[in-house]
Each structure stands twice: as structure tokens, then as C-alpha cells.
Amino acid sequence: MCTLEKRGDLFFLTLTGDGEHCFSPTVIDSLISVLSQVKSQAVRGSALITTAHGKFFSNGFDLSWAQAAGSSSGARERLHHMVESFRPVASALLSLPMPTIAAINGHAAAAGFLFALSHDYVLMRHDRGVLYMSEVDLGLTFPDYFTAMMRSKIGSVSARRDILLRGMKIKGEEAVRTGIVDAAHESAESVVEAAVRLGEQLGQRKWNGEVYAEIRKSLYPEVCGVLGLAPKTVIASSKL
């Protein structure tokens, strides 16, 4: 599951427990609820930091829940349900009226990797943890919004090829070199500390949240279009 804590103007969304933090329908519903709370409580200076307990940031969708359907058709139906249910999570992060930072404490795979990329900034540790899209190894195709997010957030064509077509596992320092993450740090604790510093720096700018969200959406038109996030014009300046 996940928890939400507010410290000053910083929101902390934490995937709790020592497991793999897989996205079951229950966890997905919890994420949607928490992100709705964050949006409703946003003020100028707010920022969101997302992290997790234990060895994993998230190992993606809960495939064991899908397989528990007892038949291949039932498993496919359950997987499709999770894929479609997760769209609002990505949509919520891309339209949240504040800066967002993923503090990756460990492994981030498949939907867990996508979840991290849905944030504005991504920090991870360089000693442990990898970024990994497991679909090619599992024999699964990618949902449209997964590939759209990858094209929007990973500028290197060769990096996207290796991640999606080779199932390459990317560690912290390599992720920084290829521009997938913004910085790599020594430990899970130092990743969160760096995320807090960044969140405070960004929050000090006191940006208008609605304007911030619309500029973000304009920056990633492909994935926002796939997710059905329509752009709009917002003029909040008192100087006009």
C-alpha cells in the first residue's frame, strides 16, 4: 500500500512495507486516492516526493494476482484491467499542479519504471537498484502510454532501444549518463535527502500550480495525448 505525509509544503508519498511494491488493483486505487488528496491540498510552494521502503521502488504490476485467475484468458483479462486502471496514475502525475520528484530507493521495473518516469525529476542510488522494462523477457507487448512515456522522457534513441528491445537493466551512474535520471546518490537515505533539498528549492519559487501543470503537459504532448490530457491556456500573471 502507500501512505501520504505532509511536512511543510512537501508531500511524501511512500510505498510501504518490505515487499516488491507491486501494483495490484488495491494499490492502484490507493495511489489514485492519494494523488487526488495531494492535488486538492496543493498550494504555491508545494512539491511531491515519491519513494518506497525496502529493496524495491516497485516491481511493476502484480502478475501473481493476474495468474491467480486460474486460466490464461483470466490472467490476460486481469493484466489488462491493471494496465487500464494505471492510466489515471500516470495522468494524475502529469497534471499535478506542483513539481514532482521520484526518489528511487531500489529496483524499478516495468510499471514501476514507468511510475518513476511520470515524475518531473528522478533520483536514484548508484550502489543498488536498477531500472528495467521486463516486458520483452516476459513475452508481453507494451501499452500505448508506456511507449509514449518512454519516447517523451528518454531522449536517447539507442537507450530506448536497449531498454525496450533488449530488456537492459540500467544502474544509477549509467542512467545519469543517458539522461534517464537526474542524479545518483550513495544510499536510499541520501536519495531522499537530495529529493527534499530539490523539493525545497523548487518550492521556493512559489509557482502557480495550474500554470506549472499546463506547461508540463505542453512539454510532453505525445503521452498527454495518449492519456487524454487536453491542454488549456492559463494566464495567471498579475502583470498583464
From TrEMBL:
Belongs to the enoyl-CoA hydratase/isomerase family. It comes from the Eukaryota. It is an enzyme of class 5 (isomerase). The keyword Lipid metabolism applies. It catalyses: a (3E)-enoyl-CoA = a 4-saturated (2E)-enoyl-CoA; a (3Z)-enoyl-CoA = a 4-saturated (2E)-enoyl-CoA. It comes from Juglans regia. Keywords: Lipid metabolism. GO terms for biological process: fatty acid beta-oxidation. This is Delta(3)-Delta(2)-enoyl-CoA isomerase. Its EC number is 5.3.3.8. PANTHER family: ENOYL-COA HYDRATASE-RELATED, ENOYL-COA HYDRATASE_ISOMERASE FAMILY PROTEIN.
